[in-house]
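Memo subject: From amino acid sequence to discrete backbone structure tokens
Action wanted: Derive the backbone structure tokens from the amino acid sequence.
How to read it: Take the token row as a discrete description of the fold.
Attached in line: The record itself begins immediately under this heading.
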Amino acid sequence: MMMKMNRLLLIVLFFPIWAFTGTGMEQVPDDGMGNILNPAELPEKIIIRDAGQRYWTFFRSSFYGFDEFWTAYSTDKENWSRPLCTGIPVLPGKSYQIRVGLHQIDIDWFPPFDFSAPQQYFRAAIDTTVDGYTILKSTLYKDSDSDGLSDLSEDVLWTQPFNMDTDDDSLADGYDTNPLAAHNIGFTVEEKLHQYILEFEMNEFPSNQLIIAEQPSEHPIEYKRKKGIVLSLSPQGCDAYLAAHGYGVPILTCNVTPLESGRYQAFFQFFISPDDAWGYDSIFEWDVMTQSFLLFQSGKVWQVP
């Protein structure tokens, strides 16, 4: 689980303070993983200069499945760093005050909570007995294996922070849209249909936030997606991810069963939480000549609630 960042008792001169509500922020340009951002994509409303003459801009983004603060920095307000995940949640119904010091960033919410014990919000347990969080800039920058992915992000994506290529596909984790799955060959027809349906649904998904694909077999499948990251996890891995991070990241599953006459029945499910799920079953035929699938029969569609 992403580690909670406690307030640090440091005496530091804070420079410009910016206050805004939790509902009025821009979305992070979340296709900038591993790249310098296009300045045309950056918001101009929230820019703060620190004591070191570096500019900081802040976003809210659900790129990792949860509504959180992201930031980027620049020395000239024209060339910006790639987005950096803070892991600090954007809570509903709260306004925020951001202060940028020489070594840290302080994000306070107001009005304060009235709870005497920590409450559960999004990814982690948020200590609602305090009025905000502080994160060191060095924590934001830290990239132990120099793969273009911060250690904070590697903790979320379950990649290896000391291995720049977790799936050993010659593509650094920060530039890999499937960081847990390498290229595979020799798929069974069942695995090909699973991949075909999940890739179709991923590209129909209206957001490019993180998606988890539950694997039908022991070797992970690499999926093609227009934008966004895919994590290939076993059924046990999906359960472990939910236990560690909670609900919020879409999980896509597709179980394929062979039928007679070269047909296959596919059961697809899109799951975010027990109260937010839908799915369907369909029957496909495998055309050996064209090496493609043909829809034979559409099945029942179900949805919760």
Remarks:
- The first strand starts at residue 17 and ends at 21.
- The longest helix spans residues 189-204.
